[in-house]
Amino acid sequence: MSEEILNTPTSEEEKKEYGADQIQILEGLEAVRKRPGMYIGTTSIRGLHHLVHEIVDNAVDEALAGFCNHIKVDILPGEIIRVEDNGRGIPTGKHPKTGTSTVEVVYTILHAGGKFGGDGYKVSGGLHGVGASVVNALSEWTEVEVCHDGTDLMKQRFERGVPCYSLKKIGERDYTGTTVTFKPDPEIFEETVFEYDTLKALLREAAFLTAGLRITLTDLRNPEEVEQDSFYYEGGVASFVEYLNTNKTPVHDKVIFMKGARDDSSVEIAIQYNDTYNENILSFANNVRTTEGGMHETGFKTALTRVINDYAKKKNFIKDNDKVLTGDDVREGLAAVISVKLREPQFEGQTKTKLGNSEIRTLVDSMVQEKLSAFLEENPVVGKAILEKAVSAARAREAARKAKEATRRKSALDSASLPGKLADCQDKNPENTEIYIVEGDSAGGSAKQGRDRKYQAILPLWGKMLNVEKARVDRIFGNDRLAPIITALGAGVGSEFDVEKVRYHKVIIMADADVDGSHIRCLLLTFFFRFMKPLIEAGYVYIAQPPLYKIQKGKLPPRYAFDEKAMQEIVEELGGVPEDGIQRYKGLGEMNPEQLWETTMDPANRTILKVEMADAAAADEAFTLLMGDMVGPRREYIEKHAKYVTNLDI
Predict the structure, then answer these.
(1) CATH architecture of 237-397
(2) Could you list the active site residues?
(3) Beta strand pairing call for 152-159 and 256-262
(4) Which CATH code fits 12-231?
(5) What is the pTM of this model?
(6) 240 CB-near residues (< 8 Å, 6+ apart)
């Protein structure tokens, strides 16, 4: 299953430009192992995968510099990662300041790399230069093999960040490149099992953003079932947008691609509208995902709104005295990828999630103004389709405003503005309170009786709610299933949602552990994702885990299990249980208030899962696939995953 890595030819002059003197040291490596969260965010499964991200980023930087066209990532038995590239190879000479090999400097000193001045890299995602050394520090062991001169193959091994020996020659090779193999330290990470699909999404994204770069992922943990994916996209960000719209119906066939450059900065933007009502904008700076946006996103949104409005007026879609189209109007159904490359990116914070370079805003704004205006003039059919989409969104926005005003007037006339079914809590400090959104009046009644009234609120729901994947915001206000949720949370909805006004900092979805309950959870999560996304981003959304089994043996206190495996373990632990001692709950309503409190609502005993926004693109894809109109892709997904279903009614 292996693929040969072919070297990208470089001239002698280019090789000389990237040497030991290009590696600059800003400060020594500190106790990364004592505070890993400062460098990788978390020691959870997300932090584990971030290690791969850091090493792959270094290889991608070689591709951005024009010296690498293939990266191989292998998951080896024992949860070991190997990343191989055919770039120039880390310089192997003695570093002028330390006297040790440059490879050792890069892997043992924080903020050491070819990305801090000099001509090693024109652009780089690894601004902070902590990638290699941090991965080394947080690994049980790391091995680095380098061929920098196209002749000598050099190697060095580290254990928990400490060199086992100096860089040494182990053979000869006629092409350059770097291979990094590491085993994450189980003393550091809560989980050390890599998820193939997570790495697959990460590497696909990197390939999209670097046109012409091939990235191959191979899972070798089970020799009998080797899994492999290879990613290569000549279309770059345009291919990325096509991928984002895979399970959606485009409003226009061709992706609109724009690019521009000024000084040491460049920008590539691809956009395509689809027939959904939600925008999906992904932005990157030097291939680093800027989840909080920044100046490049601001420049894009400002220019897009201006260009569409100017075109609409020119084509008489709106009159001069009419209200202009808002940013939300022109971005409805938009899938866009913004990728900027710049010499000295200014990321806000260690996690690099927001770009602060003001000059990039001007570049993006002027480029979109020029390129998109010209495209619309040259493609009037596409321009008309986009305008019709935006004008339709504006009408829906106006309808939503009227519906919202009607809702407010109705609430003002009511004796209380909060929903009638809501059993509110006594404490009014959001930081202390939580609300359970409960499926069904029966379970809601038990929850109301069993709760701690001081800080726990209960909002029962009844029946299936609106599938918001297929609805605009104006339909949300009039929906008797969703309106109580909006009112109870008290923070608005859609573009007006203000997470600072949320009345509870824990919003817990509590539904039955069956197919209907799963559907309710999916519908609610779709609603939060589409119309209250900051609620998820703030970490306020949770899913309750009610038990599936009650195990009773004689006069012993009852035990509870969340799945069949746990139930079997309890039965074995108790030395066997009579058949009538095992009760399988069909729904929350079967539990009395005391049992519901003890198993699902008592903070001392309960298990609740936090819903995280780790990958908005993946979440968008999943919601669209499972809740949208495209039947074919959903059928394929079900057929592919059906073999993993072991108990259909759980």
Answers:
(1) 2-Layer Sandwich (3.30)
(2) 439, 512, 514, 516
(3) unpaired
(4) 3.30.565.10
(5) 0.74
(6) 205, 208, 209, 233, 270, 282, 337
